[in-house]
Automatic annotation (TrEMBL), chain B:
Residues annotated as domain Spore germination GerAC-like C-terminal: 194-365
Key word Membrane present: yes
Name of the protein in question: Ger(X)C family spore germination protein
GO annotation, biological process: spore germination
Length: 497, 370
């Protein structure tokens, strides 16, 4: 109920603004852009600057901290300070000055970092904003050994320029869609015309337009607003901070979405297995790339099952343990006062605490946490009879295996699933473990992204795609774009071997 | 969401409500042995179990005399501080006397437990099983570990046919083949593999002596590795011992038409053995790098293998037990209905079985006479 009221309120709030941004109809006299109206709308903003030019009676309004001083001097102060009224009017008639009629457009322009010029009852806008932000640096969450070391930053224009430099094609189209009723964050969809499926572009556009929220802070947050299974634990849009990855996704026929203020870029349509590939796979020889892919899939299995399997065999299936290991394990377990399920949950929680503490703390203190955690968990816990040493191995291995997965968001999801499987294994043994895995697979098969199946190319099966999913085939074998993008232009590589 | 939370809560609360077998609360039986109880209580069974301690070098041995293995188990459970479980059984020992009476009901009781794996060896013990299990051996470890390693090492070289619970039961139920087991004998300082026990259904009827077990292996199946020790091979005039290493053999069974078998026509079977091996031990006087000499030696070895195998087949025919599975081949060549009518044991015992061995020397080692 509350939710519905909030939604209605939002819609009411949204109504006039969306009208303003969508079109500039011949304005009625009462919302013409005038100096008085603008100053009234923006009163009580201490960073607003109102500058008068006595020589020609011109008024200029802008936000001090949004504009660049060089641009301000070049485009406003220098040309107009000594100009007469006729000279000023002649200059304003040319580009880059644009005349605006509507007051809301004028105010939005000022909020975006333009300067508004008022002369003889007419209003003009000129873009003199300055990009603030850090310079391009390597992404800290997705690193590669070899390959390009640049990463996206928070600034949208800078990100788009990085992309344009990589794909110098007139077919690279970009659509701007504002999202967030108050924050007015720009979301830009980039795709290759003639390669990306136009139905997907339309669908994504529609879905982004239907978002009604006050603000959007990050791409990882934004994709949760537009995905098809909002209650699933799995991320459904691949997000990456690497320009080379995004460029290759676009060239593969996918659509990339840039969110202003976020270094992450989302790609669609995404399948589950996209989260297990890294650009590194392509920069290495294909046999190495293939073994890395397989290693990651093994890591996936280990991270969700290993501890659960330990719980299951120590609680129910003692006959599965090799005899020589059995006696050691029994001796180690006999000092532990808890049943295996509680023991495993305790240790997994401890590891998660360590990981979370490491993520929240500055790097320098994070190292201390690592050492303390290593000693406390590695040695003291076993010596104190708190856990068995085999469990330490299982927990540590599954934690390490979870970090093998290139996407941090996916690896966090998998770690959560692990807890469910551990509980099932502790209650029903291997039967429970397999039931749990079955549930996960059923759930995965049910997820869609822009209507495409999450488990492509496994279901629906596509032999050609398997070459670039579970393995990384040699480039001469990767001739087609992935089937998931449903592209009309599927050939990407015509080279004969 | 609420439903999911309910499920989760239920799962957490239910943990521990099922038939748990938490590791440290279990006593793992590694070896179990069955024997007749002796003269005064003829119907009783002597059951011994050995449970390794977690220190690995010691084990707890319990023995009791009971009517059935379940009864014995109840007695052991009353003594042991941990719940006894079958899942880690590695050897099932049967005393010789008991094996002659039939072992099926004891095997059956063990096998029905789904936790028992296929790695459990079936062994016929010559000697007192209780003493065998409670003794200390200089080879180190517990008796169970010693027996396990001994059998594994031996069957790895294919000196003895694989005789674990799985193969034993398979051969027991299968038509046209009879199960076999390994014979273990106690010596003052160790245990000794003393041949292969031939069963007829579940009754121990004959034994292949240790010296002949390799020939039995050749007859029973194709062999990928092993060693053939031959005592006196005739080579020209001399008679000398030869040993063939790393042998590789293929067995082929040919037989006369199966028509009329049910009416009593005798069966003619030929077993072709194709054996290849390295000659690394040779004490003869004649040079071996001579092709003609090698031929002579090969002919002598073939004749020797044939003689040995014929003797083994005679033993099997005498006991009417087809331990090498000729019956399987015959069965596959005829309709099942006529196979059912056939008295295979009689047919086998009366069959005319010849062995044709073809021994070839692969190489004669590094040394040559120049």
């Amino acid at each position: 109920m509350k939710f519905r009221i909030a939604k209605m309120l939002l819609r009411l709030l949204a109504a006039p603004q969306s009208q303003a941004t969508s079109s500039a109809p011949p304005s009625s006299p009462d919302d013409r852009a005038t100096l008085e109206r603008t100053l009234h709308e923006l009163n009580d903003c201490m960073d607003l600057v109102h500058r008068k030019f006595p020589s020609n009676g011109m008024d200029v309004v802008y936000f001090a901290y949004l504009v660049g001083n060089d641009d301000l001097y070049r485009d406003i102060i220098q040309p107009f300070s000594n100009a007469t009224v006729q000279e000023a009017a002649a200059r304003l008639a040319c580009l880059p000055y644009t005349e605006v009629q509507n007051s809301n457009v004028c105010i939005d322009g000022i909020l975006e970092g333009m300067a508004a010029i008022f002369l003889k009852g007419k209003a003009y806008l000129i873009r003199i904003d300055e990009a603030e932000g850090r310079s391009i640096a390597q992404s800290e969450t997705e690193t590669v050994i070899s390959g390009p070391h640049d990463g996206f930053v928070e600034n949208l224009e800078q990100n788009l320029s990085v992309l344009r430099r990589r794909i110098k094609s007139s077919h690279l189209k970009t659509i701007e869609l504002p999202v967030g009723e108050i924050s007015k964050t720009n979301v830009v969809l980039a795709y290759l015309e003639g390669i990306a499926n136009p139905d997907f572009v339309e669908a994504l556009k529609e879905r982004i337009k239907s978002v009604e929220i006050d603000s959007v802070m990050d791409a990882n947050m934004f994709v949760q607003l537009i995905d098809e299974n909002p209650n699933s634990v799995f991320p459904q849009f691949l997000t990456t901070e690497r320009p080379d990855a995004v460029a290759s996704k676009i060239l593969g026929g996918r659509i990339a979405g840039f969110v202003d203020g976020s270094p992450s870029v989302f790609c669609s349509p995404t399948s589950f297995f996209d989260f297990f590939s890294s650009p590194d796979d392509y920069y290495q020889r294909w046999l190495l790339g293939t073994s890395l892919r397989i290693l990651r899939l093994v890591g996936f299995l280990i991270t969700i099952c290993f501890t659960a399997f330990y719980v299951s065999i120590t609680t129910f299936h003692y006959e599965m343990i090799p005899h020589t290991m059995l006696l050691n394990l029994t001796e180690s377990r006999s000092r532990v006062p808890f049943p295996p399920l509680i023991e495993a949950l305790l240790m997994e929680t401890t590891i998660e605490l360590l990981r979370e503490a490491g993520a929240r703390l500055p790097t320098k203190i994070g190292q201390t946490i690592g050492i303390v955690g290593g000693i406390v968990i590695g040695q003291a816990a076993v010596q104190a009879g708190f856990t068995s040493n085999i469990l330490i191995i299982a927990v540590a291995t599954s934690a390490i295996a979870s970090f093998v997965i290139p996407s941090y968001i996916m690896s966090a999801s998998l770690r959560l699933i692990r807890f469910g499987l551990i509980i099932l294994a502790g209650v029903l043994g291997n039967l429970g473990l397999l039931m749990g895995i079955g549930f996960v697979i059923i759930h995965l098969a049910g997820i869609t992204n822009l209507g495409t199946s999450y488990l492509t190319p496994l279901a629906p099966f596509n032999a050609g795609d398997v070459l670039d999913t579970f393995v990384r085939g040699p480039f001469w074998a990767l001739r087609k774009r992935p089937s998931i993008v449903k592209s009309s232009n599927r050939t990407r590589n015509k080279m004969r071997r | 969401m609420k439903a999911a939370a309910c499920w989760l809560l239920m799962l957490v609360c239910l943990a521990g409500c099922t038939d748990q077998r938490v590791l440290e609360k279990m006593g793992f039986i590694r070896t179990i042995s069955f024997d007749v109880a002796g003269q005064d209580n003829a119907n009783m069974l002597k059951v011994t179990i050995s449970i390794p301690k977690s220190s690995q070098n010691e084990s707890i041995v319990y023995t009791t005399v009971a009517h059935s293995s379940k009864q014995a188990r109840a007695v052991f459970d009353r003594q042991n501080d941990r719940r006894l479980v079958n899942g880690q059984i590695r050897q099932i020992l049967f005393g010789e006397a008991l094996a002659k009476q039939g072992i099926w009901k004891h095997l059956d009781a063990t096998m029905r437990d789904p936790s028992v794996g296929i790695h459990a060896h079936v062994v016929v013990a010559e000697g007192d099983t209780e003493k065998m299990l409670s003794r200390k051996y200089p080879q180190g470890g517990t008796a169970g570990e010693y027996i396990d390693n001994l059998l594994r090492a031996e069957s790895a070289t294919r000196d003895i046919p694989h005789a674990n619970l799985h193969t034993f039961i398979r051969d027991y139920y299968d038509d046209g083949i009879e199960p076999v087991a390994t014979i273990l004998k106690e010596t003052p300082s160790s245990l000794l593999i003393d041949g292969v026990a031939l069963f007829k259904k579940d009754k121990y009827v004959a034994r292949v002596p240790a010296a002949d077990k390799m020939y039995f292996g050749l007859l029973r199946d194709s062999v990928d590795t092993g060693e053939l020790n031959m005592d006196d091979i005739r080579m020209g005039k001399e008679s000398l011992p030869v040993s063939l290493s790393y042998i590789h053999s293929r067995r082929k069974i040919r037989f006369s038409s199966v028509k009329g078998l049910t009416a009593g026509t005798p069966l003619k079977v030929t077993i072709h053995l194709r054996i290849r091996g390295s000659l690394l031990e040779f004490y003869g006087g004649e040079a071996l790098d001579n092709a003609a000499n090698q031929k002579k030696l090969e002919a002598g070895m073939s004749r020797y293998v044939e003689e040995k195998c014929n003797a083994l087949i005679a033993l099997m025919q005498q006991n009417k037990t087809d331990s090498i599975g000729i019956g399987q081949h015959v069965r596959n060549a005829m309709k099942y209905a006529s196979w059912r009518q056939l008295e295979w044991d009689d047919t086998f015992s009366k069959a005319d079985i010849t062995v044709r061995a073809d021994v070839k020397i692969k190489d004669i080692g590094k040394l040559t006479r120049s």
